[in-house]
Specification:
single chain, CD164_MGC24, mainly alpha, about 70 residues, CD164 sialomucin-like 2 protein
Length: about 70
């Protein structure tokens, strides 16, 4: 086992003795995050552009596709 047996041991009802948390988490009031909103728009538009060019490329390689 290359000495990795002690890294993962299933617990059989024993309790963990980890150090207690010393700091309190920061409170962030709910609200509108402009950077996240703009990033989401950029992500969606990028995915749409990639899908558009993939479909355009696939249609151009289709030998049965004919323009009128």
């Amino acid at each position: 086992m290359l000495g990795l047996g002690s890294l993962w041991e299933p617990s059989m009802g024993t309790t963990s003795t980890s150090a207690p948390l010393t700091g309190s988490p920061e409170f962030h009031p709910p609200g509108f995050d402009t950077a996240s909103f703009v990033g989401g728009i950029v992500l969606v538009l990028s995915i749409q552009a990639v899908v558009f060019f993939i479909i355009k490329f696939i249609k151009s390689k289709d030998s049965t596709y004919q323009t009128l």
